[in-house]
Every structure is written in C-alpha cells, then in structure tokens.
C-alpha cells in the first residue's frame, strides 16, 4: 500500500507536497519522495523512513516548482531502499514523471517484453517503472511535434490493456500536461480536488481526501474505474473512461487502510466502520455471545467497537492502553521478547477487564499473532471469557493488489477452521463478519472483496499467484 499526491499549480507547491504526504503517512512509512518541475527541469528528493525523516536535512526551497508529485511507500514487494522509492521519471519522450499506488500482477511478462522487445532496462522491482515505461514506449511512437490529447488517451489505454492488476497513477508530461488515471477496475483510490487562486484553479489528485483538509482544497470527485483525467497546458480539464471492466473498489480501504476522517465515494470512513460494527450484532446473536463489555484493539477498531456496543446496548470501554512510541513488533526474532514487545505496545487496563466477559473487536485477523497475544494478556489480567470479534470476514485469500497479505500460508483463516482459530488464539470463540454480511452493506457500491471471497476482479492464475508469492518471499518482508 502506498499514498500518492500530485499538484498542478501556479506558484511553488513543494511545501504543500511535503505537508500533504504527512497527511497520508499511514499509507507507507518505508520511504517518501517528491518531484517537482520548474523552468524545464525536474528536481527530486527521495529518502527512506517517514516523511519527517526523509526530508529532515532537505532544503525544500531547492525543490521549488509549480507542478509536482509525491509518494509515501510501504513496500509490499521489492526492497525498502531509496532506489525503489518513487516518484520515477524518464527523459524520453519529453520527460515524464510518475507515481503510482497498487500492484502490477503480470510483472514477469512485462519485464520481459520491456527488456527484450523495447530495450528498456527495468532497474528496480518497483511497479511504477513498468507502468511508466509501458506508457512512454507507446507515447514515443506518436507524432511528438503535434502530440494531441487523443495520443495521451491512447497511451493510457495501451497501459490499461497490457498492464494487469491494480494501479492509480499520477503523471506529469513535460510541456504537455498533467494526467491521472486508474486501472480498468478502479481498485485503488484516486481523488481529485481543486483550489481557487488569484492565478486560476489549482488541481490536486491524491489517495485520500484528508489531504484536502490539510491543504485547503475542495473535493471535486473520485476517479472512476478506467478513467483518465488530463489537464492541458491551458489548465483545461478533460476526462474520459477509456477501458472499463467490473468496478471493484478495495473494501479494505474502509476496513483498515484509510484514515477515519477520509471520504471515498461520498462515504466517510468512520461512519462506514460504525455501520460495520453495528452489523456484527447479528453475528454475536447467532453465536449466542452476550459480553459484559466491548473493547477495541487500538486504534483502527474503535468505530467498529462503538457501533457494536451501541447496537447491543452493552458498554464500550477502552480496555487496552496503547503506547504509540513502540514501533513494529514482529521483527523481533525471539518469541519471549515478542510477548513483551506486544505488552509494551498494548497493555490491558486491569480494572476494566478483570472478572468480565469481554468481546474484543479488531478490524480483521490476518496472521493471528497479535490477536493471540492480546487474548493471553486479557486472561492473565483476569478476564473471565474472551470473544475475539473480527469486523471483516476471514482473510482466506492473498491480496494481489498491493496490500501486505500476499502469502497464503501466512493467513490463519486460509489454513484453519473458526474453531481451530479460537483454539490457537486461546479464546472462547472467534466471531467473524460473513462475506454475505459484508456484501449486504455494499449492495450499492461495487467492491473488491477477493481476500475474503477469492473472487479476484482481474481474474488470476496459479502461475501468477506463485510469481507474486515468490517475489514477496524474495523481498523478505515476512
Ligand atoms: S483483495 Fe482485499 S485487500 Fe486486496 S484489493 Fe481486494 S479487498 Fe482490497
């Protein structure tokens, strides 16, 4: 998962790019990068870590430009090194820069074609190179002296036809215009905003609307599946749906990835989570579970837990105190040490949990490791019964579209029944939302729910699943 941002303006937008990346920092903490354009030149800086770390020693004024792209990266595949950080650029034709969010699934084939047929050297394992080179390769065949909007649309269509997977891209073509486009399924978000300035309307594209709140932009709209929006050098906005398949917006954006104050397709993430929480009531009733209190796994599960508590009319309590200064827990090799790290991060509040039947709500259960530690801590601190409630259905299938769940053997629900999972987690019961229950909430919004249902909108073959798993294992992010 990554966060992207692009601004086409009139004055220096580099400070906006850096601040905007901070707003979507939760989408990637491995690296951050900014590229701007001014006076015929691209200027860029990329670094590893959080935005504050990557830009700590950078004089932002040296990146001054009126057009620019920004990126924060979580490397689901590929290295976490600065070489794999975005934005990327090529100098022919024109000079084209690009950022993207998503995952290309036919990367093996594309690398071969780009290397062997088009003599483009793919240097990194970052998918943006594949998207950028495919786009540039088609564009360079056009009449470059008279490049038209149609030529640009055709080049996007070429990408949509040949690059399989999920991708939302923002691109600047030097001296020609600013471009944003999505894959034919619209799996990853891409949202357009604008701001009126004395010199005219300034446009922005990004992964989450929270960036608009930070930077004072007004929401225009979400890009549709297969759509391209092109802003020409006269600042005129053109758009077209070029290649459209079954629209399939990633439902996990609502469940976990996005900030609760972001809005996708007119739906506030916080309200969606409350709705999903309320819908869990039915599942608890079916399971015959009547808890004394509902607690959440901080921070993403708060709205699910409060929605469920409201519906059940059972008190919600903050039963786990979170230490926000403790980072990723499972890099620690030793199991005993790992246990302590989890307690450092999430510590039960003994007076709240002791002697009670507790329903602990989380957004999902992926590997189950943290869930097991949480249940054990709650029991050590006196909880009478613990029911682990997942706001999403069992994650049984790998995500091939850029979310860090791409190895099937890691997914606890892919390899165990619900009863077996309860045994492994050491809790009384595990209660999941069902696929049907989730779909009921989204009858009016076409979603991707492939990690729960196995119904991949793009289609999939075992060969591609194996290639993605291999690449993931190579990248050593386990
Ligand atoms: S498989 Fe799951 S996480 Fe991946 S895009 Fe689809 S809904 Fe989102």
Description:
This protein is α+β, with helices and mostly antiparallel strands. It has two domains: 2-248, 4-Layer Sandwich (Glutamine Phosphoribosylpyrophosphate, subunit 1, domain 1); 268-456, Rossmann fold. Helix content is 33%, strand content 25%. It is built from 17 helices and 23 strands. The strands form six sheets. A seven-stranded antiparallel beta sheet has the order 3-2-4-1-10-9-11. A six-stranded antiparallel beta sheet has the order 5-6-7-8-12-13, covered by helices on one side. Helix 12 links the parallel strand 20 (357-362) and strand 21 (385-390). The two termini are 15 Å apart. 50% of the residues are buried. The structure holds iron/sulfur cluster. Iron/sulfur cluster binds at residues 187, 250-252, 399, 401, 403, 448-451.
Topology:
Layout lengths: L1 E7 L5 H10 L7 E8 L2 E8 L2 H4 L12 E7 L14 E3 L5 E9 L2 H11 L9 H13 L9 H14 L2 E9 L3 E6 L8 E7 L2 E7 L3 H6 L2 E5 L4 E6 L4 E5 L7 E2 L1 H6 L5 E2 L2 E2 H19 L5 E4 L5 H11 L7 E3 L12 H11 E3 L1 H4 L3 E6 L6 H12 L4 E6 L21 H4 L2 H8 L3 E4 L2 H7 L5 E2 L1 H4 L8 H14 L3
Parallel strand pairs: 14-23, 17-20, 20-21, 21-22
Antiparallel strand pairs: 1-4, 1-10, 2-3, 2-4, 5-6, 6-7, 7-8, 8-12, 9-10, 9-11, 12-13, 15-16, 18-19
Helix pairs in contact: 3-4, 4-5, 8-9
The chain binds iron/sulfur cluster.
């Amino acid at each position: 998962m990554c966060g992207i941002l692009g601004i086409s303006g009139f004055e220096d937008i580099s400070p906006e790019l850096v601040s905007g990346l901070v707003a979507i920092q939760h989408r990637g903490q491995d690296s951050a990068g900014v590229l701007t354009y001014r006076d015929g030149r691209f200027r860029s800086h990329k670094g590893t870590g959080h935005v504050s770390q990557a830009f700590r020693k950078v004089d932002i004024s040296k990146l001054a430009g009126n057009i620019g792209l920004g990126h924060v990266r979580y490397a689901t595949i590929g290295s976490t090194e600065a070489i794999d950080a975005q934005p990327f650029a090529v100098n022919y034709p024109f000079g084209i820069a690009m950022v993207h969010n998503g995952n290309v699934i036919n990367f093996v084939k594309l690398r071969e074609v780009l290397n062997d047929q088009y003599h483009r050297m793919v240097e990194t394992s970052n998918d943006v190179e594949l998207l950028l080179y495919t786009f540039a390769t088609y564009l360079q065949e056009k009449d470059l002296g008279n490049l038209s909007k149609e030529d640009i649309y055709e080049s996007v269509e070429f990408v949509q036809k040949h690059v399989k997977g999920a991708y939302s891209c923002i691109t600047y073509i030097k001296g020609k215009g600013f471009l944003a486009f999505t894959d034919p399924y619209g799996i990853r978000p891409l949202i357009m905003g604008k701001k009126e300035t004395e010199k005219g309307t300034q446009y922005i594209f990004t992964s989450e609307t929270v960036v608009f709140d930070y930077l004072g932009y007004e929401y225009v709209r979400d890009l549709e599946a297969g759509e391209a929006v092109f802003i020409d050098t006269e600042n005129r906005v053109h758009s077209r749906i070029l290649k459209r398949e079954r629209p399939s917006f990633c439902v996990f954006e609502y469940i976990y990835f996005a900030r609760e104050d972001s809005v996708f397709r007119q739906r506030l993430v916080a309200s969606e989570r409350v709705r999903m929480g309320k819908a869990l009531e039915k599942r608890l009733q079916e399971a015959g579970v009547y808890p004394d209190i509902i607690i959440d796994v901080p921070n993403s599960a708060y709205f699910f837990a409060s929605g469920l508590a409201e519906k059940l009319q059972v008190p919600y309590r903050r039963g786990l105190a979170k230490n926000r200064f403790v980072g990723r827990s499972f890099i620690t090799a030793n199991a005993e040490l790992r246990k302590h790290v989890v307690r450092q991060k999430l510590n039960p509040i003994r007076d709240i949990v002791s002697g009670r039947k507790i329903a602990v709500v989380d957004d999902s259960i992926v590997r189950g490791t943290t869930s097991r530690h949480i249940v054990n801590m709650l029991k050590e601190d006196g909880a009478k019964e613990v029911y682990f409630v997942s706001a999403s259905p069992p994650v049984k299938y790998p995500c091939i579209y850029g979310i860090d769940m791409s190895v099937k053997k890691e997914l606890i629900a892919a390899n165990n029944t619900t009863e077996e999972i309860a045994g492994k987690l050491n809790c009384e019961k595990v209660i999941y939302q069902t696929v049907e229950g989730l779909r009921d909430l989204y009858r009016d919004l076409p979603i991707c729910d492939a990690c729960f249902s196995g119904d991949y909108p793009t289609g999939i073959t075992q060969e591609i699943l194996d290639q993605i798993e291999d690449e993931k294992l190579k990248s050593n992010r386990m």
